[in-house]
Description:
Order of helices and strands: EEEHHHHHEHEHEHEHEHEHEHEHEHE
Number of domains: 2
Structural class: alpha/beta
CATH class of the largest domain: Alpha Beta
Number of strands: 13
CATH superfamily of the largest domain: Enolase-like C-terminal domain
Strand content: 15-25%
Number of helices: 14
Largest sheet: 9 strands, mixed
Radius of gyration: 20 Å
Low-confidence stretches: none
Amino acid sequence: MKIVEVVCQILRIPNVQAKTASSQDSVLVRIRTDDGLEGIGEADSSPEVVKAIIDAPFSHNIACGLRQLLIGLDPLEHDLIREKLYRATMYYGRRAVGVAAMAGVDMALWDIKGKYFHQPIHRLLGGKRHNSIPAYASILFGKDGQQTKAIAQRWRAVGYRAIKMGWEPMGQNEALDIELVAAAREGFGDDGTVLIDAGCVWDARTALQRAIRFHEYKIGWLEEPLDQDDIDGYVWLRDRSPVPIAAGEGECGRAAFRPWIDRHALDIYQVDLARNGFTDSLYIRERVEEIGARLCNHCYKTPISVAACLHWLSTHKNAFLFEDCVEDSPLRHELTHERLQAVDGTITVPDGDGLGITLNEDFVRAHLVSESR
């Protein structure tokens, strides 16, 4: 079996808003073989930048586009393919979007492998330990405490027992930060789990001050309080914070995660399959388990990424929460025929071949803004 075609499609919903939400557009990677199988993947980054990395022509041996490297390879040999892509993109890849593009490819390769062997990906990863996982509703803050309280009430009313609220407008001043957290707790109730995503807004000392204040509201974790590159700050903060510290969503690939794990920088390591792929995420899972820390997925995108995260996280023995984006976006709800969303606060792991999802091709055509092959 050989790869004969690599299709890159950019989808975008109308009326994209200026907010921190990657559920408004996506880049799909569709890999086809000579015996008629197709694997589907996606990357969580700027779609046009990912597409450029896939489409790029040969420049020299360590600066080559991904499509040219993939044609003719056996899609089942994901380890060999990862090594080839990583080496052949050394001059522009190695971290960030170069690895994110490779993650979209890797996701599609595992989808092919599952379809080829008629097995769900979680079985190929070693076997799922959970048929379902408690999910938290992942949503942005309102503009103030009043709006934030109403949002929290809405998602508690439909059955979620955990919620994460984050990003804008947190970080403007202490009073507003506390108002937002207090409102989230009041709206979601005393017996629910409230998680706070700061959105990389503070220095380490300010973050510690906020963690101490937020501890009064019994938050489950404080996510990304510092810049994503401030590993020293995270080590310092985690040693002093009264609440667990979570981060990792911005990291792409095993090499990016390695120093965080080696230094025990976090309580919860958040891994996005659309930035890491299955091959590297399997390595990351094993390393995090070795140090006794906890794992959670990061996912604020389409059902493709949701399915990938479910397959991966279900193989983690201590999986305790799943990030379930509840953004009201057609990409989140209509891209696939299967609806992958929590019911009464619990989300079910797919058992179909590969990722276990099928694209709604009518939706793809209606929202397609660019395609290459």
